[in-house]
Amino acid sequence: MRISQDSVRSTFPTGILVLADGTVFEGEGFGATGSTVGEVCFNTAITGYQEILTDPSYAAQIITFTFPHIGNVGANDEDIENASPAAATAARGAIFRDRITAPSNYRARLDLSAWMKRRGIIGLAGIDTRALTIMIREKGMPHGVIAHAASGNFDIDALQKKATAWPGLEGLDLAKEVTTLQTYPHDETGWVWGTGYGRQSDPNAPHVVVIDYGVKRNILRRLASAGFRISVVNGQSSFDDIMALKPDGVVLSNGPGDPAATGTYAVPVIKQLIAAKVPTLGICLGHQLLALAIGARTMKMVQGHHGANHPVRDNTTGKVEIVSMNHGFTVDETSLPDNCIATHTSLFDGSNSGIALKDAPAFSVQHHPEASPGPQDSFYLFQRFRELIGNEDKAA
Fold first, then answer.
1. pLDDT over threshold 90, residue 234
2. Among the residues of the chain, which ranges form H helices?
3. Which residues are catalytic?
4. What's the whole-model pTM score?
């Protein structure tokens, strides 16, 4: 089945999306040329496309934006979410309803197509994103190949075979491909209108070690803004290597891929952190890894959660916050052990969005409290982590 929209593309398709089931979407290619395979998901955010496309959690995925107008404010040098050069190419492809317009924002340095070409991201515009989104909602996230060629020559059979042969994200450890290669400090704080980013300069601030499974830069900024000194370490760092840095707390970062696969090396370390009573905060993949470390299960979702408008209830306060989410795996809440409580719940589908341990200073959330992109409702979690560390210091 071929789906194309003549009103928003040129006389012949220069971009194409071929799904494993044979469905073909034809449109206008932009950004990088060539072809790439990945899992096709959809994101409902209206703004923040640059942050989304540079989020390492989107490694090996092709993002369909449900909002029709993407690219209006161009791209700049500041709104980049990958913290490690190893994660410079996060999302593999991007799909839009309408053509990219000329940028209209004082911060813009490049138009989106030129920026995506520089980043190696293949783009496709002018397709029926509503039809593709409905397909994902009803059948799940398909494997697909996105391709861009100025000539318009595509071997559809070969592209379909490539999509069919791709094994998918289940069982795939992608964290090791996007983690930092060396330990480094981070002191940049959050962006402030008129002044830009600041610096955390208190040498006596609590020290946190961030285990990088694909950490987003704004998580580091929010930690610095909350008054932490920060060291970022490789995702496969040992417990001894982490403790040698004398952390007051540890953050398990977000990241891509199957948590069970990453857990083969991450879970033993996290178990040691729990046993040593090291204050620990998990975010997204870090949340799933903490759950695995206490004996819970994770499972693949049908369509995942991808957007900046997801309602989540904080069960400890009863308040509802609107959050940013990006995950295709989830914690099976029925598998949580007795020493754990479910602290947050997604109000879209009732899935777990947070846990806290009863017998150790550790908690985690499935959503992204750093708000990049998205609302700032969850900033309190970084302060909650600061208070957790302070309480542990007093208890000691």
1. yes
2. 49-53, 112-119, 129-139, 156-165, 175-178, 217-225, 239-243, 259-275, 285-293, 380-395
3. 284, 368, 370
4. 0.96
